[in-house]
Records
---
Amino acid sequence: MTAKPILRALAGETLPTPPIWMMRQAGRYLPEYRATRAQAGDFLSLCYNPELAAEVTLQPIRRYGFDAAILFADILLVPQALGADLWFVTGEGPRLSTLTDMPGVQALKPSDAIHDTLAPVYETVKILSRELPAETTLIGFAGAPWTVATYMVAGRGTPDQAPAHKMRVEAPEAFDALIARITEATIEYLSMQIAAGAEVVKIFDSWAGSLKGAAFTRYALEPAKAITAALKARHPGIPVIAFPREAGEGYIGFGPATGADCVALDNSVSPEWAAEHVQKDGCVQGNLAASHMVTGGQALVDETERVVRAFRNGPHIFNLGHGITPDADPENVALMIETVRNFRG
Ligand code: CP3
């Protein structure tokens, strides 16, 4: 049997047609997702219901035939499993209890105590590895320590991550202890996802772009490197995708420096620049602007072809630069996939 297309790209192969999946492919732009979410009651109940979480993971695979399915869960389940309170405010986003000092870090549960809370997620992975089509790759994921910490410190999403920056500068010991705890928990969590059947894992560092210079190395690069090394030691050969979103120049060398097999790119970098500076080291993923899923038309086709063309001489997994938004048109997703798969440029 030929290996699955995503696994071939992650192994460094240049394929005639890039495999494709989409961040947030299971989400509110799909009517079938909204129906299952209503059945679950709310977002967190959906995350912790293995049958329904598996169902929403499978919906975009059935509708579009993506090359990968991404486990349906959220990066904020790890803080919850470590003892933080977590809830979602409709129309606003996540809220958590806040944490700003060493006593707060010490009150967290140990990293090996997360599995009771997260057991339903591992069950979702098991269901998916049974039910996915043979050619579809199952991707597990977690938030990167810095991004998860920004939510744990502020208790919510913040435009500039100021509370986490304040803590890392003013209480570095406590902040480093927090990063260490999240790093350990993330290794445990991803390791269990892999044991349950995840074939690839992705580390989402959505707020890496607000770290510069030595802080980027310390809080984005080093944790990704530690997680990747630990996972590969426990699960030899497991491919890792790192997503240091909006890293800019920080994308250069990020794959080799962390040991990640693939660097996911957001759309603040051009595909031509990234082909030259990032793809030269190995597989890249990305990076069509998610706004095209709202606006569609010839611009969608042109920009999709531009991304495929820019990355055609090396290993590439086609994706958006960030998650698809709830106002996207499902027809535009179909047009993007058709454009990628029919490209002969
Ligand atoms: O990509 C997928 O389809 C897999 C599932 C997935 C979700 N969240 C489901 C979700 C993944 C990989 C995530 C990652 C995630 N979650 C990140 C990193 C990636 C990124 O987008 O930058 C972050 C920062 C979070 C935290 C989070 N979860 C926020 C800020 C929000 C609210 C914003 C929003 O879109 O409403 C969520 C909620 C969330 N996570 C939804 C989904 C489908 C929407 C919830 C709903 O159904 O109402």
---
Amino acid sequence: MSVKLNDHYLSSFIKPHEYERIAPEVRMADTMLREKSGPGSDFLGWVHLPETYDREEFARIQAAAARIRKSCDVLVVIGIGGSYLGARAVIEYLKSPNYNQLPGNSPRIYFAGNCISSDALCELLTLCEGKDVCVNVISKSGTTTEPAIAFRVFRGLLEEKYGKEGARERIFVTTDRAKGTLKQFSTEAGYETFVVPDDVGGRFSVLSAVGLLPIAAAGIDICELMAGAAQASRTYGTADLAQNDCYRYAAIRNLLYRKGRNIEILASYEPFSAMFNEWWKQLYGESEGKDGKGIYPASVIFSTDLHSLGQFIQDGSRTMFETVVDIADTGASFTIPADPDNIDGLNFLSGMELDRVKKTAMQGTILAHVDGGVPNILIEVSRRDAFVLGELLYFFELSCAISGYVLSVNPFDQPGVESYKKNMFALLGKPGYESLRGDLEARLRK
Ligand code: PA5
């Protein structure tokens, strides 16, 4: 495997007998997952997706991506939460957070409908001026407010620019197979549609059409991504903790949580991981944070954040642990130049690879944080490519499900997300919410 868990820095925090004690719970979680006997078992489609995905739809995704790459300057990807984070994470991780600015990358890819900001929407409309635009709107329910508003706007823009017929060629919809307003509307309008499988929830959907179409449109090899995930699915098929790094990660998280570590910081040393961290935060936050329980998922990019959050991690309240993702070969290399005058006193680094400085910073930081009482889990990733990223995505998805079951929550629902929506709809005067409205308005007036 190209993804390995290194628990070397945990020895002073977790004793061997603790792994033995939690092992039966992990085995039980594995049984719940494999036999579909746990809560949320209607949403386990992602487990076998890397092997059993719909080949016919996969070919349509590749064909649509090729058409998008040929026919537009800009692809606007509309979606929120699990309907956009995975695609954005993969594109930025494998290409770059500066994907749109770098030469040779076409189409530009912008994400819309993931917030309620006039500024963000107006700015994006400006960026689309004079450009040939395609849209991929992604919503499993087909009713989520943020993407629905953005789709209304961009559908209007496309119809005005290309006419209804022309717009039809440029709109790609990823939604439920049969249900929802978006599905119904797309069928009537004749848009090409892709399916969010019934048994795959938003945050587990990156390896379905939800993630794959925008990822393929960015020119990333989605076959490799799926092959890596399939490799991970085969490797993590055993419930034996000693042999399964993915399950071991789930066990460690729960052991640390039981010792009062209720914040996990995912740390990377590469800015291209920032959106990957956001994807991971949603995956774990929405899956585990319920019933008054859960580990709060946070993230940092080091060494940048060593100069902001480093003080707290080293020395603040001892409630967190860190999971450090170390990517051995990121692709680029850079050698620090010499300065004959040594004005900055840095000549001891002359001729050294910048990666070596990064690695040393990481080693020094792990040791310092462990000394400061912060348990550190190390996840070693061999290289930055689509295959290995497929493994890593699957590693985190599977460990999240196992960890959630060990925590005794349903990792596949998100009842808490509804509360804000209910209040917002009532306050905005949506029909059906009248009774709640008066009460909320009175509370806001106080
Ligand atoms: O993970 C989830 O289920 C959520 O984050 C959803 O993806 C998000 O709320 C968007 O929902 P939908 O795809 O129905 O618009």
